[in-house]
Amino acid sequence: MKMIIAIIQPGKLDDVRDELYKAEINLMTVSEVLGHGRQKGVTEIYRGAKEMGNLLRKVRLEIAVNENFVELAIKAIVKGAKTGETGDGKIFVLPLEQTIRIRTEERGGVAIG
Hints:
CATH topology: Alpha-Beta Plaits
Number of strands: 6
Mean pLDDT: 89
Order of helices and strands: EHEEEEHEH
Number of domains: 1
CATH class: Alpha Beta
Strand order of the largest sheet: 2-5-1-6
Largest sheet: 4 strands, antiparallel
């Protein structure tokens, strides 16, 4: 089992979600987040101290998948999110030690769905 975390442009969420659905990946958590990467934010000096302002809006997807869906999910996210410009985002793939479905108490890959 793996946890896939993707940080993407907000305007690409529908495209990424559509591509994930085509890959039969339907379960995800979506959060609005703030941050910056290479495009950085805007640094301002306020009362002699540097402050980072204007963090950019991003969307964070969290998707738990079984091993056989990892590459499908990655390809779907890239296809839906890629514009070729700086700021398209990142994908992180982490080991997922345990998953438990609360309703049935099923554990492991079957709990993912």
